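Running this now, will post back.
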Amino acid sequence: MTSEPMAWPTALPLIAILRGITPDDIAGHVEALLEAGFDAIEVPLNSPDWQRSIPMALEVAGTRALVGAGTVLTPEAVDAVADLGGHLLVTPNTDPAVIRRGRERGMYTSIGFSTPSEAFTAIAAGAQSLKLFPAAQWGPGYVKAIRAVLPPNLPLLAVGGVTPENIGQFLDAGCIGAGLGGDLYKAGQPVSRTRERANAFVKAYRSV
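Update: finished.
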């Protein structure tokens, strides 16, 4: 198990998950997220033409946000994202080879897990933070139970089914933040909707 200091690398520990976004839409939605206060943005690799969307997101965000990819499943995919300039690596699962490659490429790793065994496998491989997925199915009670055995300084995020209405329950149970998918962004929605939902999540997070 690593003994190095662990910390979430941005000011706001909320990851905007732009699943399904296209290159035509990326700039407007990223700008809306930045204006709302988001500073961590992921483009899942099961989105169309992500090879174009990630560099465009990086160009819009500049130094204002940590930008990278989610649903990263192989070391080769890690290399592809790193080669585009992505610095955030998010997975839905626990794969030590993916984690190690991400660390080798200088990316910040947020690794998906569901069980204690997966959590400690991820930590042993060098994961810098963990995301409980799917969080809504496990619930805040599970977060509280598993938080008791995880390293106290390890950032833990809830991902999957998190809303402005329930995010406070996950934070109270021991998460430092969350990854926000369909309740923040759905493919094809207008920028105004993204702005509205982003502001709602930031308000809910800051009110806890």
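The longest helix spans residues 191-206. More later if anyone needs it.
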